[in-house]
Amino acid sequence: MFPRETTIHDIARELNVSASTVSRALKDHPAISPKTREVIKAKAHEMGYRSNALASGLRTRKSSTLGVIVPRLNSYFMSTVLAGMEKAAVEAGYHLIIMQSFEMEEKEKENIRLLFNHRVDGLMVSTTSPASDPDYFEPFFKKNIPVIFFDRTPNNQEKYNCVTIDNKRAGYQLTRHLLKNNRKKILHVTGNKKIEVYRQRLEGYKLALHEKNLAFDPTLVWETGLGVDDGKQIAEKILKMPALPDAIFVANDTCAIAIMHHLQAQGIKIPEKIQITGFNNDPFSAFAKPALTTVNYPGEIMGKVTANSLIHLINTKHVEERPFHHILDFELLIRESTMNQA
Amino acid sequence: MFPRETTIHDIARELNVSASTVSRALKDHPAISPKTREVIKAKAHEMGYRSNALASGLRTRKSSTLGVIVPRLNSYFMSTVLAGMEKAAVEAGYHLIIMQSFEMEEKEKENIRLLFNHRVDGLMVSTTSPASDPDYFEPFFKKNIPVIFFDRTPNNQEKYNCVTIDNKRAGYQLTRHLLKNNRKKILHVTGNKKIEVYRQRLEGYKLALHEKNLAFDPTLVWETGLGVDDGKQIAEKILKMPALPDAIFVANDTCAIAIMHHLQAQGIKIPEKIQITGFNNDPFSAFAKPALTTVNYPGEIMGKVTANSLIHLINTKHVEERPFHHILDFELLIRESTMNQA
DNA sequence: TTGTATGCGTTATCAG
DNA sequence: CTGATAACGCATACAA
């Protein structure tokens, strides 16, 4: 019904050359004379030729495709990461296949399997699973297909290629900021503590407390989903506390803003009564009232660095000796305009 | 260096059957006896067999891959759309290749070309280009590879498959809401007017004015990039107006909130002095102070509907008679708690 | 500089 | 129900 695709053979026939010559000419192989190369290219264009990536991939064992697995697509932070990845990937001639794990380990495994079958040339993962040893990446490791974890990494980072920020230091600085403002009872609202990013932030929080000789109180660490709805529940729970905290260190902006909103709705003065900090520098954090102190998480750069590192690994055939760990710079954004410094 | 991949031939050899039998067994072909099917599947599993999507795609002329082109990845709305698409696609056995056009027509064309070469089975596009007749989709049309536009469609929607909301009606309702609040001078801050979504919203705005016998003043329609930075500039420009508007209908939440923020910083009372409405229902719009009246744009559903429609087109071999146009429901979210109704 | 021959792994066709 | 064979479109080793 639809005319067969024009192939290099069709071009070859038209020009009375061989298919290999056409193949070579089209990819600027040096062994082809400039003249014939131009002729072939012109003809190819004229005939509306399109290279068949599938055939090419089958032959070269390369799909020119990178796989990405993220817990969820719909967060601002994640989209900036993906934006950076897409740009870097396309510039290097790769496509991006993006999949969601929806915070389910089973789904993550399935995605890994599917991307493996799809013969991606490399894989970038922000892991759902806190598992200390994700052996379901074995097929990739065995075939030496590079895998890089970004943002949410497995627990033993030294075994894997990772791109992160120093979450511990960030957590430390945020907590320190609150302590400087004479806050004594700091609630820490965080995500799944088995996940490295959240564990690190908690470590930073503890360190800052320790430095000030303040006792760490485990009942002040609340594990949640960090979503908008969680924020509302947290606020309600806070209001029921016998003694309110005087500060809250929330592990992302979304939830921080939701908490703030609901506390304010109940008449709590922010930041006078309770000071709040977030994490991620969502665009709205600067517009919250009061503006939210947060950590600028360089999403686009993280995406770019991850993708470029992956492509580098793909291109360097020889096995890298040991995994690398890129730690990107973050930025503490202090936004309180009129705070009493201690 | 790395052991060759196990193929159906390897399995066939081990079991003394033919490769075709293995191939059939693995995809549950009815003509294979249940017994041998199970034996083959077990062996395949044992040998760590993985189907090669490239080879399969080359043979069947199907890549099991859907292409997506969007102007930018990093907006909340777009990520919800993609989240919906990814889910629907994976459920139907497809992968998603996502590309950005960065609001550049050239980039969009290049992406179309790349995805065509990559042999995607279908294409979903939120177009960058306001061009009335995007002939660079011709390769797809010619080969009868389905293309669906979502959100941002070409101008002559009747010629293409589209999934949208009724932007005109939404714009109309928002404007009407402002008029009901006795607003007389409504500034409309919008995106590129050549783009259908923005044109439609403007049409709705005009209609509402017309209905109230208010003259349409073209100088009250400002075209911008609708980003955070644009918001600041707009605010500054507003403050320089000889007579301030008493309402602003902004074509997205991000920009609306930015404008609101900067006007408030200059002492303008919102909504008393100037009432503002947004568009998209970004999660933060509910937390803005005051909360932003907006239109709930069903991103995830849009993604799901678009992907499912595309897959349907792929599966129905016969050419559809005419393009379809799915118009999704939106929801006007009125958020002003204490407004004086006219 | 170009051509020939072969194979990448799978599936469709046809035969048995 | 199963097997043999060819073909999908391209790229490469080798030959010329």
Automatic annotation (TrEMBL), chains A, B:
SMART domains: HTH_LACI. It comes from the Bacteria. This is Transcriptional regulator, LacI family. It comes from Thermophagus xiamenensis. One of its GO terms (molecular function) is transcription cis-regulatory region binding. It holds the Pfam family Peripla_BP_1. Residues 6-60 form the HTH lacI-type domain. PROSITE patterns: HTH_LACI_2. SUPFAM superfamilies: lambda repressor-like DNA-binding domains, Periplasmic binding protein-like I. Keywords: DNA-binding, Transcription, Transcription regulation.
